[in-house]
From TrEMBL:
Topology class, membrane: Multi-pass membrane protein
PANTHER family documented for this protein: CHROMATE ION TRANSPORTER (EUROFUNG)
InterPro entries hit by this protein: Chr_Tranpt_l_chain, Chromate_transpt
Transmembrane stretches, start-end: 86-110, 116-136, 143-162, 222-241, 253-272, 293-315, 327-350, 362-385, 410-429
GO CC annotations, alphabetized: plasma membrane
Molecular function per GO: chromate transmembrane transporter activity
Lineage top rank: taxon: Bacteria
Name used for this protein in its record: Chromate efflux transporter
Subcellular location: Cell membrane
Species name: Nonomuraea cypriaca
Length: 450
């Protein structure tokens, strides 16, 4: 193995320019974002080897939070040390944060107009098609053995019928993956896709050792700084605005969400939607779907939708602040507590992970988690379908089962037609996501005009 002896593998300014250009292309969810980094960093610039890139991605998928942003932080850390990770992770979310903040303002100002209502009526079915596509993509990648198909089905039933807490579903899935690696390791065997392409050697080759030496002392410093940065704003709003304010509640809730967001935004949105809509009443189910539609149209991680949730919740209950000041504070605080932990997880764990390249326990747990994520996303698709196609749902209880069933008489013919069109554009025509969202928005306008 070769030894990587310097923090700056490439000039820092060159890296900043590269991460800025990547941040402007991060549409299409984690799959699209990872593909952009793969093409730019691995294939075009040859800054990092394919196996090294995949190893970093595997670690990030094991973590709570948006794996694509964490991958950017990890690769930025490999290329330029701590400052490289900070710049890569910040630029990855900054354009989307600013864009979604502007769209949130537009939504609050003009949500009741006919044009905006019609646009969202068309965009919501497109989101349903996008979520359905996510279920299939993750399933193809992760359900490589019948036992993992069973894990996916069990995760869906546990969430949809029994209301099992999301963290428990993920923990059990990881345990099942680890168990399978012990009793039936052949079930985990699959190609790694690391084959070389005959191009020039990358600046960070697959067998290079990173210069950072993990130690308890450095880990303690990172943990202390990270925890202070993470929790100081939450403590400040609790002290200045009260522990019962919406800002303290949002800071605590989304800090907790940041610890259980395994499998990307789709996997945790059902949990967020349930609490934000039913428990805290920050927004309606329809607005949750619209928020995801807005997040889909902006660059950056889809989990940025929590900023929209917090914006509306704080705008409607600003306490001692004005509605707009409250909305801005809630949005920025939620964004902070959602993404700061990502930096902490990477800076804390990456030096150790660099020395665990082929750990079978990590890979096995990851396989179990990704299998469960299929069921989790399917549950989210069901939630969106109910609130997109039907105007009302009714509770249905039978023994331990308790679910919401749509009232068949409240189905929207226009939403049904647009959903079918979105599914055709997604799965048959295979059009880009932004084109589908745009056409569905126009279809929504047409239903009002006609």
């Amino acid at each position: 193995m070769t030894q990587q002896t310097t923090e700056d593998v490439i000039p820092f300014r060159q890296a900043v320019r590269a991460w800025f250009l990547i941040s402007l292309q991060t549409f299409g969810g984690p799959a699209g974002q990872i593909a952009v980094m793969q093409r730019s960093l691995v294939e075009e610039k040859r800054w990092i080897g394919q196996q090294r890139f995949n190893h970093a991605l595997n670690y990030c998928m094991l973590l709570p939070g948006p794996e694509a942003q964490q991958l950017a932080i990890y690769v930025g850390w490999l290329l330029n040390g701590t400052r490289g990770g900070l710049v890569a992770g910040t630029l990855f979310v900054l354009p989307g944060m600013l864009a979604l903040l502007a769209l949130s303002v537009v939504y609050v100002l003009w949500q009741d107009t006919t044009v905006v209502t019609a646009l969202f009526a068309g965009i919501a079915p497109a989101v349903l098609a996008i979520v359905a596509q996510a279920v299939i993509r993750v399933a193809k990648r992760s359900l490589t053995h019948p036992v993992f198909v069973a894990v996916a089905v069990a995760a869906f039933l546990a969430l949809a019928l029994f209301g099992v807490p999301f963290p428990i579903v993920i923990a059990v899935a990881a345990l099942i993956g680890w168990t399978v690696s012990k009793v039936a390791p052949h079930a985990l065997a699959k190609g790694n896709g690391h084959g070389g392409d005959g191009g020039p050697a990358p600046l960070i080759p697959d067998d290079a050792l990173h210069h950072a030496q993990p130690s308890l002392r450095s880990a303690g410093k990172i943990l202390a700084v990270g925890l202070v940065a993470w929790w100081l704003p939450v403590a400040a709003v609790a002290l200045l605005l009260g522990t019962d304010s919406v800002f303290t509640t949002q800071g605590l809730f989304f800090s907790g969400t940041a610890l259980v967001t395994f499998g990307g935004a789709y996997a945790v949105l059902a949990f967020v939607a349930q609490r934000a809509v039913e428990t805290y009443a920050w927004l309606t189910p329809g607005e949750m779907v619209r928020g995801l539609a807005l997040a889909e149209t902006t660059p950056g991680p889809l989990i940025m939708v929590v900023q929209f949730v917090a914006f509306l919740g704080a705008y409607r209950d600003p306490g001692a602040l004005t509605p707009w000041a409250g909305a801005l504070l809630g949005a920025l605080l939620t964004t902070w507590v959602t993404f700061v932990p990502c930096f902490l997880f990477i800076f804390l764990g990456a030096p150790y992970v660099e020395r665990l390249r082929h750990n079978t326990a990590i890979s096995a747990a990851l396989t179990g988690i990704t299998a469960a994520v299929v069921g989790v996303i399917a549950n989210l698709a069901l939630y969106f379908a109910e609130h997109t196609l039907f105007s009302r749902t009714v509770p249905w209880d039978w023994g331990p089962f308790s679910i919401q069933l749509p009232e068949t008489g409240t189905i929207s013919p226009a939403a049904l037609v647009i959903t079918v069109a979105a599914l055709l554009m997604t799965f048959v025509l295979k059009w880009p996501m932004l084109r589908i969202l745009g056409i569905c928005g126009l279809l929504g306008l047409a239903t009002v005009l006609l």
